[in-house]
Structures are given as structure tokens and as C-alpha cells.
Design brief:
- Helices cover 77% and strands 0% of the residues.
- With 369 residues, it is an all-alpha fold.
- α10 runs antiparallel to α11.
């Protein structure tokens, strides 16, 4: 215990001599090669994450049937959180580590609060999605009664309110009393180690609940398939396709593997930051691991949104509608510039060969048809 108390017992002068924090230099530990690598990751993953999740939000917002279903409200919440993560994390991370920008404690805590809110809401939305699937499997007959659209919106309101409050606690005053010197966090300037411990514990609880929900889903699917095996074998169809529980196990295994691989390294460093004093090498490793959270936000649309058949169908319908609208707009412009009914008829035959109604005499009727 004595060796852990040595850094905290140092005077302010000795601590500053051993750990210079002028202009936050003690936190800007990346060398040029590491800056190049992390910059490439952020410049690649950031725009991809933004475009993917913005596409998911657009499809859900533009499709009335999807907006009414709680499952897609949770997926939309996940996409919104990942959009915030791509914007807040990429800009603040690059500003701080690559461009070495120091805007002061208030601006830094505001940016950090935005990043924390985005990632916390992302994990919270993953939990709501897992609980939604759990209810769909375990309470199939009462699912629509238990999880209405109103209750889904209420749960999202509680989620975002809670995560926003927790994320901006440092900005509201929960900071390190000693400024930048130990025992403050060595991973985040001005941040109290107690806050780091509380936030890390909160995320670990959310991840544990996600694992628990998917484990219960797999158990339920396994029991259902086991009870149906004898009937399928008697009918001669039991070996025609892979068992549902095996397919679910592979899908959920991939989801959980990516989730744990992206979040466990970051949370491990944050727990270590609470108990021991991290070195510069460990700080640089944490900077690399934190980019995995952004990668997780880039993968989430592929795992949760685009794997849903209804969302893919809605996306294709919207794209087809856009193509038809653009084609009709082009046709309307051509017809406006043309003079004479013969040219009008020729354009109709070329652009819209399926139209067989010569009674349509106006451009508006043609477009409506």
C-alpha cells in the first residue's frame, strides 16, 4: 500500500517536476508515427460511421411502418448515438491528440461530455435492442401489449436523459480537486478518478445485461428447437436446414464478440487508471484502444440495422422512389422545352414505355400515373 501512496504524497512542485502538465503536455503523448496511424483510422472510420448511421436514420424516418415499431425506434436511437459519436469523437480526438489544441477546462469538459454521451447512449440503445429481442422471444404472445410505441418512446426518453446527465457531471462540477496533478486521471484532464470508476462500472453493468439478455434468448431458442426436433424428423424436414438455435448462436456470438472486443480494452485501461498510475506507453495504448469504440459504431449498422429484412426492403423502395422521381423530373423538363404534341408523344414512349393510356393530356397527369 505504501508504494501506491507515494505519488499522492508528493508536493505540488515535485509532482509537476515529475509529470509536467504545461498546456496538457502530459496527456498529449503520441509520437508522429502514432499520430499518423490514429489520424488515418479516424479519417476513415469517422465518415463511414456518419454515412452509415445517417442512412439508417433516413430510412426509418421516411418509412411510416418502421417508425411505428418499437424495434426500429431502438435501432434509430442506436444510429443517432453513433452519428453523435462519429462527430464528437472524431473532431475532439483529432483536435486534442493530433493538433494539440487546448481550449481550456470548460471547452474540454464540454467536448468530453459530448463524446461520453454518444458512447453511453450507444451502449444503452444496444441494451434496449437486446431487451426488445428478449421480450419478443420469451413473451411472444404478449409482446405487442408489453412493448407499445408509447413505452418504447418513454424508455428512450429515460435513456437519453440519464446518459446526458451522467456524461456532463464533470462539466457541472465533478472534477479533480488538484487540477492536473495526481491523483487525477492520467487518461482525461480535469477528471476525477471517482467519476472514471463510476462511469466504467455503469458501462460494465450495461454490457453484462446485454450478455444476459442474449444468453436467455439462446436458451429459449435451444429449448424450442429441441422440442421441435422430433416433429421435424418425423416429417422428414429436420435436416433440410440448419437449426434456428445454431443460427442464432452464430449471429449473437458475432455481435457479442465485436462488442466485447471493442469495449473491453478501453474499460480495462480505465479501471487500471483508477488503481495505478499509468505510464506514457499505457496512455498511448489507451489512445489506440479508444478508436475501437468508433469502429464499433461503424459496425453497428451492419449488425443491427441492415441485417433486418424490413429495413432493407424499405431502403430499396426509397431508392426506387428517388430514381423514379428524378426520372419524372427530367421528363417534365424535357416536355416543357419541347413544342408540339408529336414530340410529347415520342418522349412518353421512350421514357415510360409501360404507359398505355393516351387519354392523359397533361404533364401532371403523366407524372401522377
Amino acid at each position: 500500500m505504501e508504494e501506491w501512496e507515494v505519488p499522492t504524497s508528493l508536493s505540488a512542485t515535485e509532482a509537476k517536476a515529475n509529470w509536467s502538465c504545461e498546456n496538457l503536455e502530459c496527456y498529449m503523448v503520441l509520437v508522429e508515427a502514432e499520430k499518423t496511424a490514429i489520424g488515418a483510422i479516424c479519417f476513415l472510420a469517422g465518415p463511414i460511421t456518419l454515412l452509415e448511421n445517417a442512412l439508417v436514420l433516413w430510412v426509418i424516418a421516411a418509412t411510416a411502418t418502421l417508425r411505428r415499431r418499437p424495434s426500429y425506434l431502438f435501432i434509430g436511437s442506436l444510429a443517432l448515438a453513433d452519428v453523435f459519436a462519429s462527430c464528437f469523437f472524431t473532431t475532439s480526438f483529432l483536435d486534442f491528440h493530433l493538433f494539440r489544441r487546448n481550449d481550456g477546462s470548460t471547452a474540454y469538459l464540454f467536448k468530453l461530455g459530448g463524446v461520453t454521451m454518444a458512447f453511453t447512449s450507444s451502449v444503452g440503445s444496444l441494451l434496449l435492442t437486446a431487451l426488445d429481442r428478449y421480450l419478443c422471444i420469451h413473451q411472444a404472445s404478449r409482446y405487442k401489449v408489453l412493448l407499445t410505441r408509447r413505452r418504447a418512446l418513454l424508455s428512450l426518453l429515460i435513456l437519453w436523459s440519464t446518459t446526458t446527465f451522467i456524461s456532463f457531471l464533470p462539466l457541472m462540477g465533478w472534477t479533480c480537486s488538484t487540477g492536473l496533478t495526481p491523483p487525477c486521471s492520467r487518461l482525461f484532464p480535469y477528471i476525477n478518478q471517482g467519476y472514471v470508476a463510476c462511469w466504467t462500472s455503469f458501462i460494465l453493468v450495461l454490457l453484462a445485461l446485454i450478455l444476459w439478455a442474449y444468453a436467455l434468448i439462446l436458451c429459449k431458442a435451444h429449448r424450442h428447437e429441441s422440442s421441435m426436433t422430433s416433429l421435424q424428423t418425423a416429417a422428414g424436414t429436420g435436416h433440410a436446414r440448419m437449426r434456428m438455435d445454431i443460427r442464432l448462436a452464430r449471429t449473437f456470438g458475432l455481435i457479442l464478440l465485436i462488442l466485447v472486443s471493442c469495449w473491453l480494452p478501453v474499460l480495462s485501461f480505465m479501471l487500471a487508471d483508477v488503481s495505478v498510475r499509468l505510464s506514457d506507453t499505457q496512455q498511448r495504448a489507451f489512445a489506440f484502444c479508444s478508436t475501437l469504440c468508433l469502429v464499433n459504431s461503424a459496425v453497428n449498422p451492419l449488425l443491427y440495422a441492415l441485417r433486418c429484412r424490413d429495413l432493407r426492403v424499405a431502403l430499396l423502395q426509397l431508392l426506387q422512389r428517388l430514381c423514379k422521381t428524378r426520372r419524372c423530373k427530367t421528363l417534365t423538363e424535357d416536355l416543357t422545352l419541347s413544342s408540339g404534341e408529336d414530340k410529347f408523344s415520342a418522349s412518353c414512349e421512350v421514357e415510360m414505355p409501360r404507359i398505355r393510356t393516351p387519354q392523359l393530356n397533361t404533364v401532371s397527369e403523366m407524372v401522377s400515373s
